[in-house]
Design goal:
Pfam families: GGDEF, PAS_4. This is Diguanylate cyclase. Its EC number is 2.7.7.65. There is one protein chain. The chain folds into three domains: about 15-130, 2-Layer Sandwich (Beta-Lactamase); about 150-255, PAS domain (Beta-Lactamase, 2-Layer Sandwich); about 270-440, Alpha-Beta Plaits, CATH 3.30.70.270. A six-stranded mixed sheet has the order 12-13-11-16-17-18, sandwiched between helices. The protein has a five-stranded antiparallel sheet with strand order 2-1-5-4-3, with helices on both faces. The longest helix is centred in the first third of the chain and has 23 residues, at about 130-150. It has 16 helices and 18 strands. It is about 40% helix and about 25% strand. It is rod-shaped and about 130 Å long. The protein is an alpha+beta fold and about 450 residues long. The protein binds guanosine-5'-triphosphate (GTP). Guanosine-5'-triphosphate (GTP) binds near residues 309, 325 and 422. Guanosine-5'-triphosphate binds next to strand 11, helix 13 and helix 14.
Length: about 450
């Protein structure tokens, strides 16, 4: 036992089992005198120092590791020995003979004699080097993951089977105009309009039920009120507590979506006049034809050809011909207002499909356009150009099984209008519409 001056050789542990306990405790246990010399060290400390107890006792730490790197240890020792403090903290500056840096969690307490006077110090240290390395690795991985998920151009979230968000990245928070913390723990209905949340929830439920990855296009109005489009991949996952959840990754494709729509619009439009082109006209016409037949609704078609257009091109040039085509389309649009589908089906050929319009009403519309066309003055250098067009009109009848049949009748009527001198509207009824014989007017 130490004497009252604090000087001693070692603590005599008479109880072998107590000493065995200290050896097996799985921590570094030691005591020192008032100047830092070991008075006791358990097996782990002796292994670390590489010497038996009788060699270690009476020597301080610098004897084994030198002075370098032990300043912080000495500072805490001083606080315990001189100030009577109890210290519990991490110490990572013990350099072994191999040069390896290890980290310890150390508790140091003053040792007192029967009168309460400090006679030394007891230290217990746990080697937390591996735990620290693992923590550092996990922290670095988390930092990397956070950097990735916050900077990727996608909303990333995790949602449980009760519609509650378990995770959200920064992009997600930006889209909803709130903080990540506000999203986590919120229900989907707290963040978006009820009908939108319900739509997503229906989909989430299917994924939770069938456990299958799902990819689809989704739309959402963001915090600034702008409709945004996403390509979403949703995968079933287990939440932090192991209960079913889903992870969603929604990539913002708003720009791409706009581009796609523009390309689709361009593919359907005539580049000179901006109205529907032949391909899109036929697609819509086939569809409308089938619908009108099914519903027993009237459907009429006007085919149009600008008169003597070749002459305009030949005398005034192709660019002027183009302008005439544009002026003619403007004329049709003025006369039609919102009725019908106007399309350019050829060079100077146009069609107007009129759903819900009978033959007589269609002829009336064709006449209106014809009159406005011949009344229009087109300014060309040094003169005023006047144009005219011929019109063929036909209406759907019960015996028409294909759109082509209706189209052929309108085309025949147009041919007749040309034959009869142009700048006129000709109408061709089917035999069914006109009794036993067809009629051209
Ligand atoms: N400027 C211009 N001309 C075109 C375009 N597409 C076709 N054309 C021309 O349109 C003219 C059509 O002439 P035709 O089919 O002979 O008919 P037309 O001269 O109008 O005579 P009718 O139809 O019998 O009154 C041709 O000269 C084509 O070159 C175009 O996009 N722009």
């Amino acid at each position: 036992m130490p004497d009252s001056t604090g000087n001693c050789d070692f603590i005599a542990l008479s109880n072998d089992s107590y000493r065995l306990l200290l050896d097996e405790v799985g921590a570094f246990v030691y005591t020192t005198d008032m100047v830092g010399r070991y008075t006791f060290a358990n097996r782990m400390v002796l292994q670390l120092l590489g010497h038996p107890l009788d060699y270690v006792v009476g020597k301080d730490i610098s004897h084994f590791f030198g002075d370098k790197g032990n300043e912080a240890l000495r500072e805490t020792d001083e606080r315990v020995l001189r100030g009577g403090e109890t210290i519990a903290r991490e110490e990572s500056n013990l350099i072994l003979a191999t040069g390896e840096l290890r980290t310890y969690w150390s508790t140091k307490k003053p040792l007192r004699d029967a009168t309460g006077q400090i006679i030394g110090m007891i230290g217990i240290s746990h080697d937390i080097t591996e735990k620290k390395r693992l923590e550092d690795k996990l922290r670095r991985q988390k930092e990397l993951l956070d950097a990735l998920v916050d900077n990727v151009d996608a909303l990333i979230y995790m949602k449980d089977a009760n519609r509650r968000f378990l995770y959200a990245n920064r992009r997600m928070a930006d889209a909803f105009g709130c903080s990540v913390d506000q999203i986590i723990g919120s229900l989907d209905v707290d963040l978006m309009p009820a009908e939108v949340a319900e739509r997503f929830w229906q989909q989430d439920q299917k994924i939770l039920a069938n456990g299958q990855r799902h990819a689809c296009e989704e739309s959402l109005v963001d915090a600034s009120g702008r409709l945004r489009h996403y390509w979403s991949v949703i995968i079933p996952w287990a939440g932090p507590d192991g209960t079913p959840a889903i992870i969603g990754l929604s990539t913002d494709i708003t720009e791409l979506h706009a581009l796609k729509e523009e390309l689709q619009r361009q593919a359907r439009a005539d580049s000179l006049t901006g109205i529907a082109n032949r391909r899109s006209f036929y697609e819509s016409a086939e569809h409308e034809f089938a619908r009108s037949r099914l519903q027993g609704r009237a459907l009429s078609l006007i085919t149009i050809d600008i008169d003597f257009f070749k002459k305009i091109n030949d005398t005034l040039g192709h660019p002027m011909g183009d302008r005439v085509l544009q002026e003619f389309v403007a004329c049709c649009q003025d006369a039609l207002r919102t009725e019908g589908l106007l399309a350019r089906t050829g060079g100077e050929e146009f069609c107007i499909l009129l759903p819900g319009t009978d033959l007589d009403a269609a002829r009336h519309i064709a006449e209106r356009i014809r009159e406005q066309t011949q009344a229009r003055r087109i300014a060309v250098p040094a003169q005023e150009l006047r144009i005219s067009a011929s019109f063929g009109v036909a209406g759907l009848c019960d015996t028409d099984e294909r759109f082509e049949t209706l189209y052929s009748r309108a085309d025949l009527a147009l041919y007749a209008a040309k034959q009869q001198g142009r700048n006129r509207t000709s109408l061709l009824r089917s035999p069914a519409q006109e009794g036993a014989s067809s009629s051209m007017t």
